[in-house]
Design brief:
145 residues; alpha/beta; 5-stranded parallel β-sheet; 5 helices; 7 strands; 46% helix
Length: 145
């Protein structure tokens, strides 16, 4: 049925639950599984007279981001055990755009994502990457709660 499934994960239990579901779905239909994580870009902060202040060096930032990516990948490997998958890490301050772009680039025919199911004011204030993907993606999205 599906040939290529993309699963964005952030290391939370809920995203790993979606990963488990996607793995079973991929195995049942022989689909290729791509696991991805979107990590934030290097931050810059404006200070005082218009000069830029950075909290850490770019080297320190890259090390922190790589450590985070490795931790998420390790959790995915533990979750999937022997199931075949490809892992990729993308740097983007707009995770929903990174997810959609990777799905198009990899020619995925399904995105499987987790959702916390927030409603009302908390959904408006906290936002939802899942909602943004649902709104902007032309690739079908399966949401797991």
């Amino acid at each position: 049925m599906f040939k290529s499934i993309l699963v964005p994960v952030d290391g939370t239990k809920l995203s790993l639950k979606a990963l488990s579901y996607a793995s079973k779905l991929a195995a049942s239909g022989g689909a290729k599984l791509t696991v991805m994580t979107a990590l934030p870009e290097f931050p810059t902060m404006i200070g005082g007279e218009g000069y830029m202040v950075t909290p850490v060096s770019t080297k320190q930032w890259d090390q922190m981001i790589q450590k985070r990516s490795d931790a998420i990948k390790a959790r995915a490997i533990k979750q999937l055990k022997d199931a075949p998958f490809e892992f990729t890490s993308v740097t983007s301050d707009q995770p929903h755009e990174a997810i959609i772009n990777l799905a198009k680039k990899r020619k995925c025919d399904l995105i499987v994502m987790a959702s916390h199911g927030r409603r009302g004011l908390s959904a408006m204030l906290l936002g939802s990457e899942t909602t943004k993907v649902l709104t902007h993606s032309t690739v079908p999205v399966l949401v797991c709660r």
